[in-house]
Amino acid sequence: MNVPAEQTGEIDFGNDGRPVIKTTTDDGEIVFYNIKSSKTFVHKIGDKVKFRILRSGEGADAEITEIISHQKKFVTGRFENHKTYGLIFPDSREIKKEIIVAYMDFSGAENNDKVFAEVLNPEDQGNEFSDLRGKVVEVLGKSGVRDSEEKSIIRKFGLVKEFPKEVLKEANELSLQYDPKDRLDLRDKVIFTIDPEDAKDFDDAVSVENLGNGNYLLGVHIADVSHFVKEGTELDREALKRATSVYLVKNVIPMLPEKISNELCSLRPDEDKLTFSILITLSRTFKVKDFEIRKTVIRSKRRFTYEEAQKIIETGKGDFHKELKLMYKISKSITLIRLREESLDFDSNEVKFRFDKKGNVTDIVVKERLDSMRLIEEFMLLANKCATEYIGKVTNEYKTYIPFIYRVHDNPNPDKMKDLSEFVKQFGYTINPEDKNSLRKLLNDIEGKPEEFIINDLFIRSMSKAIYQTKNIGHYGLGFRDYSHFTSPIRRYPDLEIHRILYDYINGGKELNKKIEHYKNVLPEICKQSSIMEQNAEKAERESIKLMQIDYISKHIGEEYEGIVSGMVQYGIFVEIMDILVEGMIRFRDIEGDYYEYDEKKHIAVGRRKRKILKAGQKVKIKVIRVNKESKKIDFALIS
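Predicted structure:
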């Protein structure tokens, strides 16, 4: 096939969740290229680009030569008033140079304000010879002040908490109306929810029964959001636009209005609720024998927090203790089955913030991962897997392609896994990055060690990104051939759409072929939008956590902590405070009594005079010496 020197294409998701260039040949064939040598171009999913092919064939590479699409570009940053002009220093890592603002475009911004601004010539952001120009859209407050920085995160990632009037109007007109003939009535069954203490929307409930013949019936009951949010409505369009709820530390940006998420669809106890249930028949050894997917109506008997359920599991005393103990036993068994079948079990740490009455951070604690949490996670994984396997059954029955939304996770990028292999050598571990069993052994070996969560975090970053797409390539991390998202339709749009798809396929009928054509047309765009917004939400949530950590540690300058060396660069070492998971840097220039040099090959730092060695995984004592709230950088001093 002859290809021109320069072509046009679009930035899209590759199988590994990272951006690639997508183009269509004259023959109608869709071709993907890995993006290489394009560091001067800032590109986003959906951008139209010109590119030049560097290497053809499998794993083809190309470089971007021009960004064609000139979509509006907004940034947040610190404003400097130079009287006749202003400068904005962007928070964005993508834009590394300041933005010039004409006097008439200050919009009331004063020196050291945090501002939200539009870039007027985004096409020049990769051109080192062109200045970027902008205008202030909104003044968010003083730079470095937490309230201003919180607003900045919301604006920076394009998040909007308030819903349009027409969306709220549709939501407020909804009520609990249904035809009992269309649903399996489970209101007399023992069904309950288990959620975090601060949860407001309960979108999943569970049940278990001993069928008396050596079999068990496990029920996973999910809020039937699709009954209320109909395709093509203003509610639906807004939900797809948001695609996911975003959970910032002090703010939730919901996908759906509160009338739906916290009232109509929330599975609150002692209220009739509409659900979509997966009823799973398990054998005596808790292996899946069969399952059924049904529209149901339930009445939750109890709302448990994770802590309440955990206490009952441990003591065997309390409400529904028999059911909880049996659920725990089942979950432990299916976890073992999953791990035997190639699943990688990551155990990453999460932090929780405590606040005083004024909203200031008073403490940071590491969340304990309870067995009750694992129980719910395991049941949700199983339900998601069953929902996807049902599509395989439909495909076999109709002997035709059935469009669906898959949650896919491609094999790891070999280069990144090679870097991981080199990194873990610092801790005394050796892995074969091409052997999944070797990776699983590493995860087992680091369990309970000081370096566990440092390696886990890098491990996750080295993996491909899980995304949504219509082509099923399986889920590498979970080790599942078939996987999707079914269990959180209140907060994830793919789950809501999958409920619609399953309902249409289960009911079949004369309209099935028309539905298949419809889903062929709409699902690719839904997958792309959902993947884009999910990654956007993850970045916003990480930045929100970092902001709160900065707010906390800025009040503890001069205090000493125990930390662990988490990484090294040419000019210093990164240290994570073990109790609160706050990471900062010890710059070699700040170490008294010796000067350290970084040995890149050995991944160690060595003192010139005393020959003392610093290496990853080493426990150290540090003092907090500097905090920059604007750049969100923390500097430590080494004590011992």
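Summary: Residues 557-638 form a domain with the OB fold (Dihydrolipoamide Acetyltransferase, E2P) fold (CATH 2.40.50.140).
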